[in-house]
Amino acid sequence: MDSCTAFAGDIWIASGAPDDVRETIRALDGDHAAGPLLVFDDETGRQIDLDMRPDEPARPRGRPRLGVVAREVTLLPRHWEWLRAQRGGASVTLRRLIDDARQKQGRDPRAARDATYHFLSAIAGDRPGYEEAIRALYAGDQARFGALIADWTVGVREHALSLANGAWLQG
What DSSP string describes 111-145? Predict the structure, then answer.
């Protein structure tokens, strides 16, 4: 997970890297008078749990901390030759190529719609116009979706629009 967003009830608290959001939440000193504290993965829109335990003493850096998983890759000899010639070695080059491709590809409209749906289901399911907004979202009707959520609180509305950014059909 690259980024997440936290809400206390309807009030947007923080967005960013999980460690940064965790620090912002800790700074609240448990003052969630606006409502329950909810944190969402910005990629999937799903509610997540952040580990709020105090930080453990610093451990040496290493691959397990990064979440690196070893798997088999099968390539032709010419591919291995090319990878060996790259700066950083095969693993670094493959990670860089994948990250570049993901960034160029943009967000899949279906993934954007689903992320928006998961977020809104958790935080706005009881709001007026919720069901119609979800229908508009999946119909690709950006104008209707925007109109239906226009009266919702700023934080919820703006985060929903941000998640839905890639959901609209190009035409």
Answer: HHHHHHHHHHHHHSTTSTTHHHHHHHHHHT-HHHH
